[in-house]
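Worked Example 4.2. Consider the chain below.
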Amino acid sequence: MINSSISDESILLSKIIYLLNRFNIKYLSKEDIIYLYDSLEKDKNAFLQKDPSTQGGSTYLLLSFSSFDSVVGYRIANYIYKKYEEKIDAKKISEYIKVKTGIEIHPASTKVAIL
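Applying the procedure from the previous section yields the following structure tokens:
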């Protein structure tokens, strides 16, 4: 287990805020960010339940899994793409995550399976 004084909630929220700030996306509301956080919390729990390599726990997952980072980017990009129809902002996030993680998930994708 990783011993961290930073909470998982803070790490997850910082991932969301980082991507929004990196691309100067200011139009999301507090409710939008809460929705994204809740969705990613469910994704985090799915990873922990279904992926045996997450034995190190949730902090380990949040800090070291590029596959989870790709899901974070996808969730944000997909939300922006669908709710705000900001296709260019969504694609910028998607391309950044693709370069960072090597994993590409198009922002218009309707389902991402966490097997």
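The longest helix spans residues 30-50. The CA atoms of residues 14 and 75 lie 14 Å apart. Compare this with Example 4.1 before moving on.
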